[in-house]
Amino acid sequence: MALPNNGTTADDSRFDWNSARTLLAGLPGGGINIAHEAVDRHVAAGQGERTALVSLGRHYERHKISYGQLAAASARVCAVLQELGVQPGDTVAVLLGRSVELYQAALGIWKAGAVFCPLFGVFGPGPLRSRLELSRAKVLIATETLYSRKVLSIRGNLADLRHVLLVADEPEQSIGDHAGCDDFRARVATAQPAATVATTEQSPAFMHFTSGTTGIPKGAVHVHGAVVSHLLTGQQVFKLVPDDVYWCTADPGWITNTVYGLIVPLVNGCTALVDEAEFDPRRWYGVLKDEAVTVWYTTPTNIRMMMRYGAALARTYRENSLRLAASAGEPLGAEAATWGEKTLGVQFNDTWWQTETGAIAIANLADDGRPGSMGRPLPGVQAAVVNRNLSKVEVVNDPDAVGELALRADLPSLFSSYIGDTSRFQSCFIDGWYLTGDLVRRDADGFFWFVGRSDDMIKSAGHTIGPFEIEASMMVHPAVAEIGVVGKPDLLLREVPVAFVSLNPGFEEGDALRTELLYYGRQHLGSAIAPREIQFVEAMPKTTTGKILRRALKAKASAEPDEDAVLPTSGYPGRFDDE
Ligand code: ATP
Ligand code: MG
């Protein structure tokens, strides 16, 4: 598959999405379906024997699944869903860990023309109930434990939920006795494969709730036509080829797993690594090396955690098969990017996107990167720095001017609605631009630099300060493991920047270090934007996707007196239910 060669600049209006679409196989009878692009097309091309998945269980039980096996199993899942009355357009919610069944379920749901809606297993019954209600899911596929602990108590409240399919927690086991539930594995094993429903580019395919960093999460709906962006971004950002062993560490409840854990490696014909276990640096280093992972997609949080375990441990894994590592979700920062390169010997690239964009839009590439920046818009993505003016947007072309990041709304992967909130959806679009809510600047070479979310900007003494700039500078201090900077209300200056800091091993909280960090900030940032206050925390409050939860820090910063207040120290893996 060759890429249309249409350049890489922000003003790339010549990119022809229609010629890009010819790279898709398309359903034999016409139409586009993600499952067909992800598995069946490879089987039709005689590649059914190739390994689609390598799954590792908690105790390193290792299974290989071929494209042919995955195609057949998902056709049987499709049949089971149809037997349960699932119609095209219906939503099927999924509450599974990283497992082979997650892949079978997603692909089977797409084959049935239904909408895949994965949820975070770490949510409690409250957040699950609100999301299940909003999604109007008719069927839920869940692990036995997650169902018993979190859904059973709310099942009576879910008017739309008609059927529950359960997956036993241990491989090859059947489920226990649960009223109104069926055994997923048993039903799938005996079903007759069904043909893929004829979906079109506009048919809804999956729904994901945003991370809730800035408030109540929104359910963004994506269509089957997005798969062209998935195919292309896999090639543009990761240069994926079928021989790659590709590992995305995202949680199944986050869109990063659906797109870059599931769809992207499969549409590009690679082997996807599926590790069921939670974050553990030793295990992760071991998996990278032993499984000969060539491309690794993770988050800045995970990288910072690995940094905290020290460069010496990392260097023992320097002999590895990695050719590229990348991260998303928060700014990676030059510090972490360079650390990765130094210790694991591979380039660490930052990529920018959102639940709403449905695919990476801006990225550093293997041959075109600038550590610390978000990178440049990918081919076919038109990005601009704009100022919003009521119902107009004004494009700002001056290099380094700060404004809101806007994308031309013709991206095939862009969301098609927020479930149940049309007016909010409409308010994201002005004059053919999609407004992202992120503030950025673009340098003279066309690289975009993240400044902050518009809601997170700190307004102090007439300046508007982006928290990320302060964080990136302070991260260079050897004591700082993680840092979140927020504005604290101030009578005189309106707000002042306050830094919440967690420390690297070997450093002690106390007034001496606090003074040193305050001094360090003034020296490197100048007194106008340096933090005025440092608060030490054991662990940062995080969203389930591992992002620093600034609204919790803001609440903590504004609380008076705040010296003894305790943060929700979930740490990461972020176990902080955001409702
Ligand atoms: P919510 O919209 O509910 O507040 P969220 O925006 O965190 O949550 P996501 O869609 O998971 O939910 O995250 C997208 C956001 O994450 C982006 O808008 C941006 O603020 C941030 N982000 C993602 N990747 C990067 C990156 N590489 N650099 C800087 N910020 C990033
Ligand atoms: Mg958002």
Automatic annotation (TrEMBL):
The keyword Cytoplasm does not apply. Residues 558-579 are annotated as: Disordered. InterPro entries: AMP-bd_C (IPR025110), AMP-bd_C_sf (IPR045851), AMP-binding_CS (IPR020845), AMP-dep_synth/lig_dom (IPR000873), ANL_N_sf (IPR042099), Mitochondrial_ACSM (IPR051087). Transmembrane segments: none annotated. It comes from the Bacteria. Residues 42-418 form the AMP-dependent synthetase/ligase domain. GO terms for biological process: acyl-CoA metabolic process; fatty acid biosynthetic process. Residues 469-547 form the AMP-binding enzyme C-terminal domain. GO terms for molecular function: ATP binding; CoA-ligase activity; fatty acid ligase activity; fatty-acyl-CoA synthase activity. Keywords: ATP-binding, Ligase, Nucleotide-binding. It holds the Pfam family AMP-binding_C. The keyword ATP-binding applies. Belongs to the ATP-dependent AMP-binding enzyme family. This is AMP-binding protein.
